[in-house]
Amino acid sequence: QILILDFGSQYTQLIARRVRELNVYCEIHPFNKVPDLHPGIKGVILSGSPCSVRDKNAPDVNMDLFKQVPVLGVCYGAQLIAHQSGGQVLPSHAREYGRAKLTTVDHHNNLLKEISLDTQVWMSHADTIAAVPSNFEVIASTPSVAIAAYKVKDQNVWGIQFHPEVTHTVEGKNLLRNFVVHICGCAQDWTPDQFVESTVEGLKKKLGNDKVVMALSGGVDSTVAATLIHKAIGKNLHCIFVDNGLLRKNEFMQVLDSYKDMGLNIKGVDAKDKFYTALKGLTDPEAKRKAIGKTFIDVFDEESHKISDVKWLGQGTIYPDVIESVSVNGPSVTIKSHHNVGGLPDKMKLKVVEPLNTLFKDEVRVVGKTLGIDPAILGRHPFPGPGLGIRILGDITADKVSILQEVDHIFISGLRQHGLYDKVWQAGAILTPLQAVGVMGDERTYERVVSLRAVTSTDGMTADWAHLPYEFLAEISSDIINKVKGVNRVVYDISSKPPATIEWE
Ligand code: XMP
C-alpha cells in the first residue's frame, strides 16, 4: 500500500482516488500523525497544502522516517522536501494557477518515463521552488516554473510542483503509475473482487458466531455493508429498517421488499407516530435533526434489545467519514449537524463493525455491483437521514408530510420517465411555509408554495443547480398543481452550493 500524508490540501482525497484507480490500496493520514511504517507500505506521497513552508507554524514532517521507501512530494510536499534540504522556496511573482506545459522532460528518469514533452499539467501554488541543493537534479520544467519536478540524486525522493491528481494534468495518472507501480513496486491487485473476498474472510474471522444488529436506510452504503456482513455470517445479521414517517412515498414497503428479496434477515418497524410526537411544534432545523436522531436511537435501541445476545453494531460508514481532516487554518465550523446513526455505539455498548470504512463512495458502488446488488439501489440519489423532516420548512405534521410525498413522487418519477434521474446527483422537493394567492376555475385559492431542487455534483461538497429542460419543468409544475391538493405554486431553486446548501435546512 501507499501512505499519503495530508498537509491540508483540498486535493488530498483526489490523490488517494487516483492511486486506487490503479488498483493499489492507499490510506490518508495527517502529517502530524505518521503511522508506523510496516513492511506493507511501499511508498509515501506528501500532499499539497494551503500553507507556505516559510510560515512560522508551517506543517512539517521528519523525512528520516521514510528512509526505507520511495517518497513523492506534490506541490507543498515538494517545497517542504526542498526547503528542509537547504533549497530556496520563495513567493511566486504571480500566483501560478492553471494550465501549463512541461517544456523539458527528463525521460531517463523513472518518474517521467513515457510522459510526453509539452504535456499539459495543472499548477496551483503561491510559492515556488527558486533553488535546489546540488544533490538535487531538475527533471522537468515549464516556461514559467524552472523547477517543475526534481529528483534527489542519491535518494529515492522526487518532488513535483504540479498536481498529477487533477484531471487537467493530462498524463497525471501515468506519472502516478510510474511512481506507485514502477518505482514503489506495488502489485495492482486491489480489485473489487479481491476486496469482497478478503473482507468477507476478515468478517468471518472477526465475527465468528456472534450476532450483529444493523439499521438499514435503503441507501447504497448501508445496503452494501449489510450484504457483505450477510455473506460472512448469514442469519446472524439482524437488520432493522425504521419507518420514521419522513420517507418518500411508498418507500418503506418497496425497500423492505427489496431487502427481503436479497435474503436479508430484516424487520420493518413502523415508528411514524413516535417521530411525529417528538417533532411536534419544533421549527428550528437543528432542533428537528436532534429530535429525529434521538428518536431513531430510542427506537433502534428498543428493537435491538428484542434480539438476544447481540455483540456487534454494523454500520455503513465510508472512508470520507473517517479520514481525519487536517485543519491548518483554524477549526472548521459545523454548518449542519448531519444525523446518521451517530451516538448509537455509545448508547448501546456494542462493538462496531464497519466493512466499508476504507472505501470512497464510487468504490462502494463498484463493490455493490460485484456483489450483484440491484442497480436501482446502487444508483439511488443520496437521501438525508432526517428525510423529508428537513424539507418541510417549519414544524412537521403528518398532513404536510403527505403533501410533500405526493409532490416529491411526481418530480422523481418524472425525472425517471424523462431519462433525467441519472443525470442529476440529487433531487427532491421542499414544502415552504409560504402561502400564495392563485386562481383555479373561478375560485381564488390561497395555498402552499413548493420548490423543486435538483443538483449536479460529484460528492455533495459543492453542487450546481441542474439545468433541467423548461419543457420538463413545465410538465412537472402543472402535474403538481393539478394533482396535489394544497399546492398552487411551484418554483425551481437555481442556487448553487456554495453559497447555498443542497437542502434548505
Ligand atoms: P447540504 O444541505 O449540507 O447537504 O448541502 C449535503 C448532502 O448531505 C445531505 N444531508 C444530510 N444527510 N443527515 C444526512 O444523513 C443530515 O442531517 C443531512 N443534511 C444534509 C444532503 O441531502 C446532501 O446529500
From TrEMBL:
Binding site for ATP: S217, G218, G219, V220, D221, S222, T223
GO cellular component: cytosol
UniProt keywords, alphabetically: ATP-binding, Glutamine amidotransferase, GMP biosynthesis, Ligase, Nucleotide-binding, Purine biosynthesis
Keyword Ligase: yes
Domain of life: Bacteria
Reactions catalysed: XMP + L-glutamine + ATP + H2O = GMP + L-glutamate + AMP + diphosphate + 2 H(+)
EC code(s) of this entry: 6.3.5.2
Molecular function GO labels: ATP binding; GMP synthase activity
Active site: C75, H163, E165
InterPro entries from the UniProt entry: Class_I_gatase-like (IPR029062), GATASE (IPR017926), GMP_synth_C (IPR001674), GMP_synth_GATase (IPR004739), GMP_synthase (IPR022955), GMPS_ATP_PPase_dom (IPR025777), NAD/GMP_synthase (IPR022310), Rossmann-like_a/b/a_fold (IPR014729)
Residue ranges constituting the GMPS ATP-PPase domain according to the UniProt record: 190-380
Pathway annotation: Purine metabolism; GMP biosynthesis; GMP from XMP (L-Gln route): step 1/1
Job description of the protein: Catalyzes the synthesis of GMP from XMP.
The protein's assembly and partners: Homodimer.
Protein's name according to its UniProt entry: GMP synthase [glutamine-hydrolyzing]
Species the sequence originates in: Chryseosolibacter histidini
Source organism phylogeny: Bacteria, Pseudomonadati, Bacteroidota, Cytophagia, Cytophagales
